DNA sequence: TCTATATGTCGTAAACATACGACACGAAAT
DNA sequence: ATTTCGTGTCGTATGTTTACGACATATAGA
């Protein structure tokens, strides 16, 4: 590709885009909701809660981990996934600012 | 692909994902901000404001149009892009609800 | 009429996302 | 010791996104 001109945009917009991408698949939204609901930190039980194959769920978890919205800590033989509250709060703040800054007026044509 | 199991998720999560996808590239965030700032409805001047090729910008505009966050009305020889305020408000509401519903507690492991 | 401007469509190349099966590996139960 | 469970990694097929050049068209002005 000649692709990936993302770096030419302001850091704040890049970061917002990263979070938006993390939320851009219903499975990942479902996973976040699941993690928030079951307050215990869960392992591959997620696979049973989300109607997708184990590998696919793992992949979505990886995407969420890359965006740092979740953490995955090894707890003995199980792995313990949970929402990264710091990062999550940062996302909320960023989105809030973004949506506040975009104040459209419907003056089209 | 065996892909596109998106339909198996709740409609609300699917719609949130659609909006998130629309915001998932810095160029599209930049376009939205530009449209909101320059309160006039703009045409291909966007190409000059966004450091990308004309075709690429058009493509991003198409993605935004698909998510219905913007409209593109033909106004004589020019095309007039602007934010679809109704849809935009719906997005804000959806995100607000979503982020409210995900209330993580940092009790990891 | 010819030209420039504004716009759109098509094609294409490379990268990334989605979905999953198959295999690997270590710890706990039998 | 062998099996099972929880986990992860690899490979792979297909679809989507990103980026852009080349071509097409229609309108306004010289």
Q: Could you characterize the architecture of this molecule?
A:
- 2 copies of one chain form a homodimer.
- By secondary structure, chain A is mainly alpha-helical.
- Chain A has 5 helices and 2 strands, in the order H-H-H-H-E-E-H.
- The first copy, chain A, has helices at residues 11-22, 26-37, 45-49, 54-66, 85-101; strands spanning 70-75, 78-83.
- In chain A, a hairpin with a 2-residue loop joins strand 1 (70-75) and strand 2.
- In chain A, helix 1 crosses helix 5.
- The longest helix of chain A is centred in the last third of the chain and has 17 residues, at 85-101.
- At the A-B interface, helix 1, helix 2, strand 1, strand 2 and helix 5 of A face helix 1, helix 2, strand 1, strand 2 and helix 5 of B.
- The structure holds a DNA duplex (30 and 30 nucleotides).
Order of H and E elements of chain A:
HHHHEEH
CATH-level-4 superfamily name of chain A: Winged helix-like DNA-binding domain superfamily/Winged helix DNA-binding domain
**Class computed from helices, strands and strand pairing of chain A:** mainly alpha
Cα distance spanning the termini of chain A: 37 Å
Q: What percent of the residues of chain A sit in helical stretches (DSSP H or I)? A: 40-55%
């Amino acid at each position: 590709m000649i692709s990936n001109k993302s770096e030419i945009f302001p850091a704040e917009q890049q970061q917002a885009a990263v979070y938006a991408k993390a939320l851009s698949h219903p499975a990942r939204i479902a996973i976040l909701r699941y993690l928030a609901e079951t307050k215990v930190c869960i392992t591959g039980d997620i696979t049973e809660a989300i109607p997708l194959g184990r590998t696919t769920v793992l992949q979505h978890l990886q995407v969420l981990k890359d965006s740092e919205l979740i953490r995955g800590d090894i707890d003995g033989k199980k792995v313990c996934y949970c929402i990264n509250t710091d990062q999550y709060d940062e996302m909320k703040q960023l989105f809030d600012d973004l949506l506040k800054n975009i104040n459209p007026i419907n003056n089209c044509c």
